[in-house]
Design goal:
globular; 11% strand; 10 helices; single chain; Rossmann fold
Length: 310
């Protein structure tokens, strides 16, 4: 399985995806490759899409060395990563070297014009619209709606959805992207693809990675692992290199240093401080922008009913 983490193409990394990947690896008895693709704003789209495709093709070519079966490649991800998994499934179908056998899409984003997302305020819990627009402004700076709908970015707008691998689409009940995931699942079904939708009422965007908090997350991961374990093989004879290049594994010292860094990241004092610093910076910039706007245009005029009559 190749896993693409979420984070609006701006945040998220191997650390944030580590728990889900380990749980799926154990439950499905699968080899899991977690992809750390380039992120915005340093690398706007389609950098993430290109990295996602390159990672899947690398996994296919090196499947034998990884102890994996290239005929049972599963493309999976959550949120933005779900959109990447859907994109890669389309590219492998069209360009090879071999098709994927299954897609597991957790609350995926498939339409980056955001036209399919639900703007109902009650659904914007944890992931609110200010944050969604912030991600979009960094990953697609200055893009028009037509650019955001480009099929090379938004899987929903592909010219052809037929011939794609079966899909398991998991959605959360309290999530702006629930309607997006349902729309993509429906489009796959209408194109003749075997697409299964599993909805989890009352759950928020990102819940699958919070199984220690939300019991439903464990159920979602079990269903995903079951689908991965039962995936049927496809023809992937052309995917594996006859003499693949050796995998350049980390040296022992480098690996230990990396593991120490990963352990440190698990400490709330370290990881939590970074998250809080990012949020504080964002809110400080927003407050400064408001003050600048008020200084230029003056304070808003109070309604007549609120004026003091001398």
């Amino acid at each position: 399985m190749v896993w693409y983490h979420g984070g609006g193409f701006v945040v998220g990394d191997l650390f944030t995806a580590d728990g889900v990947c380990r749980r799926l690896a154990r439950a499905a008895c699968a080899t899991v490759i977690s992809v750390h693709y380039r992120r915005a704003p340093e690398h706007p789209l389609p950098a993430a899409h290109r990295d996602a495709c390159a990672a899947a093709r690398w996994a296919l070519a090196h499947a034998g060395q990884l102890g994996a079966d290239p005929a049972r490649l599963v493309l999976a991800g959550d949120s933005a990563g779900g959109g990447l998994a859907a994109h890669v499934a389309q590219r492998l179908r069209d360009e090879g070297p071999a098709p994927a056998a299954l897609q597991v899409l957790c609350y995926p984003a498939s339409d980056f014009s955001l036209a399919r997302a639900d703007r109902e305020a009650a659904h914007a819990r944890l992931l609110d619209w200010e944050t969604i627009e912030w991600f979009a402004a960094h990953s697609m700076p200055g893009w028009s709606d037509s650019q955001r709908r480009d099929p090379s970015i938004s899987p929903l707008y592909a010219d052809r959805l037929g011939g794609l691998p079966p899909a398991l689409v998991i959605t959360a009940g309290v999530d702006p992207f629930r309607s997006d995931g349902i729309a993509y699942c429906r489009a796959l079904s209408e194109a003749g693809v075997s697409a299964t939708h599993r909805d989890f009422p009352g759950q928020i965007h990102g819940f699958a990675g919070m199984d220690l908090i939300f019991p439903a997350a464990g159920d979602a991961l079990r269903q995903a692992a079951d689908a991965i374990a039962r995936v049927r093989p496809v023809d992937a004879r052309t995917a594996v290199s006859a003499v693949p290049e050796p995998i350049l594994w980390d040296r022992v010292v480098t690996d230990r240093l990396r593991r120490m860094g990963d352990t440190a990241q698990r400490l709330p004092q370290v990881n939590g401080a970074r998250v809080l610093a990012t949020l504080a910076d964002h809110h400080a910039r927003a407050a400064l922008a408001t003050l600048v706007s008020l200084s230029r245009h003056g304070s808003p005029r109070a309604p007549d009913s609120q004026r003091t009559i001398p």
